[in-house]
Every structure is written in structure tokens, then in C-alpha cells.
């Protein structure tokens, strides 16, 4: 029998954080839901901890064979039986309104929902002073509900060089809620649920090509955690920049063909763009790539990684001229024009002033994910869904 909601948690070698996340997620799930844990750790310690919970809502699978990020997500989604699902990290959690959002989606035949509000919880981290006792950040909200044309937004993202894809309020499996049949459509077209190098942006691009009814809501329904071992924390010290062969995304991935239009160095920007292009090709939407502003990607890739790999990013970007079948001097000229327009755009924003953001609430001395969740739920007033 299908469940209403599957909360899916792929994990690897972060047992101490995962079991705490699992306990907090279970607080919000009723008998209509399941918590799917796909464990690819190097040992089965987590299995024993899960068994001790003795909870029938948990679906646990341990695969000792080392898997790539993509394959671990693939196995996790294969296990799920929910009509809807949400993928969370092993240091994340839900909120008291997660199921209410799913019920609203079911009643209104909605395929996908994303939240404009991100709740961040940095777990206590003794290596970074401002996070040593934990930090919870959330924003004011106005409960707006808006239907969004996902394909139209996707076209804007492509025109922006696939940069900052979270800003476009597109469908997403990671911290978004998706009707499972939409991912089945992706698999029917491409042969699998996930591809590329990173499952979150790949699925965002793929889903934007198939969902029919997508909404964004100004209300949080999940908590994005960042434990000391997380990629989010690693990125703050330049851990997401380097030579392409150093990218963890290639681990256990097998033979992989990097897209010729993306500079061959490791960064958030290049990994995202490469996986996004793969998704469009796998979904047979190569036509959308006509609007791809590759030179915007190139310039932002250099600027955003200048403190860590300036020489490498410039060198790999210049080398692209041969793959693009462009004269080197023409290639440099285009880069120069894009750099000038980028600087002009930044200066314009500074002169006009930044758009006022909703007020953020930051609370320190939040020592656990459970405590962070309790504080957040006390501040969420609940939504009357239309």
C-alpha cells in the first residue's frame, strides 16, 4: 500500500548526526508516512541504532558497496512508496507543518512545492568560533502562495548561466516536496531518476521539464542543517574549489564525460552547470541550451573562486576556446565584454541599493537539532491553506 509521504534520507558515514536527525523527523510523521534511510556507510553501526528505535515507519536499507552521490540517491528513491516525497540530508529535519503542506498538495492536485524561506541550523562546531555553540537562522514570512511556471523560470536560469539556481524557486527534490509520479516521468524519459554529478540540481532541471502544477510558498516546511562534516561548512573555507579530479562527485561514479562548454575545474558553479546541462540532454531538451549564457558562467566562476583557485579557473576557462571552436583572441574579447558588463551590473546594484530582505532571526547557543526544531516550531504560527 502506498504511503502519503516519504521522507528520504541518503547517508554515508555520518551516523552520529543521522540518528539525531531521524529522531527529530519521526516527531512529525504519522502512520501515513515513512522515513526511508539509504545507508552507504563503511559499516552498519547506524543499522543497530535504527533497530533500537523499533519504529514501523522507518524503511532502512544498508548497502556496503561504495556508491556515488547519484547512485545513493537513486537507491533511496527506489525504496520509497509515498505518493509524495522530500529528500533531506542526514543533518536536516522537517517541521510541524510538513504533512499539512502535503495534504494541501493532494487536495489541489499539485505536483511540486518549494519554499521561499530557508531555515538554517549550523550544528555546534568547535573549529569555527561563531558556530561553536550552534546557530539557528530563520526569517519572517507572509504565507504567500503563488503558482509558478517552472519551464519559464528554467529558461531564465539557463540565460543566467545556471548560476544561483536556488533563487529561481524551481521544483526540487532536496528540501522540496514532489509528487512521485513526476520523478517516474523523468525516469521513463531518461532511464533513471538522477544523473550528472550532483542529484539536487540535476533533478531540479529535469523536474522543471515535466511538472505541470508547481507552487512556491512563503513558509518553511524543513530545516537545512549543517553539521561539522557537511558540505555547507566545508564551502566556507574554500573546500569546494580545486582541480576537477579532486571533486568528491566523481568518487565511485565510473567513467564520466565532462561537458565541453564548462571549464574543467572543481567549483560549485561548474559542477552545477555541468549537471544541469546533462539533465537537459537526458530529458531531450537540448533546444533550451540555445539560451545558455556560457560567458556569464565563465566570469562568475573566476570571480567567485578568485580567493582559492584564481590561476586554475582562468587557465581552464581560456583553454575552452579550442573546444568551442573559437579563436583565442575572440574568446578573450568575449570574456572581457562579459567582465565589463558584470562589473557594471554590480556597481548599478550598489548605487541603487540592495533589495530589502525579510528580517532574519539568528539565535546562538542552540546546542542540538532537536532544540533548533523546538524553537522553530514555537515561532511558526501555522498556515490556513487555500
Automatic annotation (TrEMBL):
Its EC number is 2.4.-.-. It comes from the Bacteria. Residues 6-132 form the Glycosyltransferase 2-like domain. Keywords: Glycosyltransferase, Transferase. It holds the Pfam family Glycos_transf_2. SUPFAM superfamilies: Nucleotide-diphospho-sugar transferases. The keyword Hydrolase does not apply. InterPro entries: Glyco_trans_2-like, Nucleotide-diphossugar_trans. GO terms for molecular function: hexosyltransferase activity. The keyword Glycosyltransferase applies. PANTHER family: GLYCOSYLTRANSFERASE (PTHR22916), UDP-GLCNAC:BETAGAL BETA-1,3-N-ACETYLGLUCOSAMINYLTRANSFERASE-LIKE PROTEIN 1 (PTHR22916:SF3). This is Glycosyltransferase. It comes from Acinetobacter nematophilus.
Amino acid at each position: 500500500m502506498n504511503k502519503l509521504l516519504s521522507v528520504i534520507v541518503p547517508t554515508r558515514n555520518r551516523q552520529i548526526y543521522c540518528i539525531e536527525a531521524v529522531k527529530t523527523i519521526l516527531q512529525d510523521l504519522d502512520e501515513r508516512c515513512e522515513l526511508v534511510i539509504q545507508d552507504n556507510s563503511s559499516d552498519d553501526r547506524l543499522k543497530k541504532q535504527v533497530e533500537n528505535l523499533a519504529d514501523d515507519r522507518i524503511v532502512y536499507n544498508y548497502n556496503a558497496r561504495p556508491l556515488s552521490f547519484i547512485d545513493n540517491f537513486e537507491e533511496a528513491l527506489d525504496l520509497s512508496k509515498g505518493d509524495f516525497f522530500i529528500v533531506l540530508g542526514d543533518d536536516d529535519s522537517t517541521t510541524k507543518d510538513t504533512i499539512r503542506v502535503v495534504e494541501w498538495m493532494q487536495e489541489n492536485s499539485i505536483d511540486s512545492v518549494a519554499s521561499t524561506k530557508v531555515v538554517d541550523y549550523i550544528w555546534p562546531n568547535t573549529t569555527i568560533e561563531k558556530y561553536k555553540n550552534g546557530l539557528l537562522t530563520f526569517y519572517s514570512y507572509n504565507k504567500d502562495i503563488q503558482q509558478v511556471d517552472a519551464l519559464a523560470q528554467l529558461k531564465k536560469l539557463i540565460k543566467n548561466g545556471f548560476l544561483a539556481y536556488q533563487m529561481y524557486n524551481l521544483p526540487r527534490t532536496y528540501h522540496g516536496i514532489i509528487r512521485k509520479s513526476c520523478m517516474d516521468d523523468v525516469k521513463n524519459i531518461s532511464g533513471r531518476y538522477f544523473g550528472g554529478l550532483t542529484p539536487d540540481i540535476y533533478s531540479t532541471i529535469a523536474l522543471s521539464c515535466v511538472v505541470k502544477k508547481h507552487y512556491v510558498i512563503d513558509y518553511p516546511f524543513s530545516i537545512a542543517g549543517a553539521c561539522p562534516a557537511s558540505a555547507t561548512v566545508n564551502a566556507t573555507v574554500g573546500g569546494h574549489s580545486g582541480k576537477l579530479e579532486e571533486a568528491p562527485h566523481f568518487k565511485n561514479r565510473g567513467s564520466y564525460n565532462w561537458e565541453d562548454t564548462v571549464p574543467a575545474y572543481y567549483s560549485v558553479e561548474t559542477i552545477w552547470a555541468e549537471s544541469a546541462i546533462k539533465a537537459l540532454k537526458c530529458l531531450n531538451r537540448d533546444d533550451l541550451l540555445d539560451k545558455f549564457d556560457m560567458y556569464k558562467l565563465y566570469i562568475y566562476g573566476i570571480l567567485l573562486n578568485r580567493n582559492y583557485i584564481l590561476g586554475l579557473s582562468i587557465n581552464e576557462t581560456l583553454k575552452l576556446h579550442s573546444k568551442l571552436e573559437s579563436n583565442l583572441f575572440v574568446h578573450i574579447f568575449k570574456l572581457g565584454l562579459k567582465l565589463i558588463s558584470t562589473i557594471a551590473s554590480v556597481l548599478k546594484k550598489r548605487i541603487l541599493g540592495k533589495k530589502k530582505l525579510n528580517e532574519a532571526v539568528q539565535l546562538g547557543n542552540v546546542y542540538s537539532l532537536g532544540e533548533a526544531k523546538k524553537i522553530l516550531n514555537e515561532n511558526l504560527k501555522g498556515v490556513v491553506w487555500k
